[in-house]
Amino acid sequence: MATLRLQKYLAECGVASRRACEQLMVDGRVRVNGQPATRLGTMVDPEQDRVEVDGQRLQREEKCYIAVNKPPGYICTSSDPEKRPTVFDLLRHDKTFPRRLRLFSIGRLDCNSEGLLLLTNDGEFAQWLAHPKHVIEKTYRAWIRGDLSAEHIRQFKHGIMSEGELLTAKSICLHSRPEEAACYEVVLAEGKNRQVRRMFEAIGMTVARLQRVRIGTLTLRPLKLGAWRHLRKDEVLSLRKLAGRTTAPAIPG
Question: Which domains does the chain have, with CATH numbers?
C-alpha cells in the first residue's frame, strides 16, 4: 500500500477530523513504531507501520454515516463531566449499533436545541462538510413569543451584530403559528456558534424551542425524536457533492 500523511490516516481511522488529528500529533499523543510523531509532514504505510494514539493501536474502520434526531437536554460530546446524557447514549442503548465504532459529530447543536445531527467516523467527510468555504445550507425552526416586524426580517437578511460578529440568515419566514407562539423557519449558509439563538437575542427575542430540520440535501424526516439511522449511499454522495467532492466513498449497502 502507498504511504500517506499521518493526519490523513488518523482521520480515516475515525480518530477525529484531520485538523483535530494534527493537534493530537502536535500534543505528542501520536506514536509511529513507538516513536512520538509530532511533525505534520510525517508519512506512514498503514500495512507496515504501527500507529498509536494515547497508547491504542489504530486500524482502519468501515466508514459509517448516521443521522440522529437529537432531543433537547442531550449534548454532542462523547462524555460529560456533569453526567448529562449525550447523543452517543442514544446509539449505545440500541442493541443493533456496533459498539466497536468510534464516532464524532459533524458540527453541534447546543444542549437545549433539537433536531438533525450527523455522526461519522470519517474525518475527511466531517472536515469537508464543516469547512466555511463549502456553503452547506442548514434550516432551523425557531419558536418565539411575539412576531417579527418587516424591519426584523430585513436585519436577519442583511446582518445582525452579536458579540463582535456579523450574523446573517439566507432567508427567514413565518412557518406556522401554534398556540401562544410563532414558528419561524431560518435558513443559514454559515455556521457560527449558537447563531440562530444569538440573532433572535440581538433583536430582543428569546427562542423557546429550536429545531434543525435540514442539512444540505438531508432532511429530518422520518426520524422520530431520539431515533437514528444509517445514511444511504446516495445521501452520502449528495452531501459530498455539496462539499465539492465527487469520488464515491466505500459505503456498505
Answer: 4-57 (3.10.290.10), 65-132+221-242 (3.30.70.580), 138-215 (3.30.2350.10)
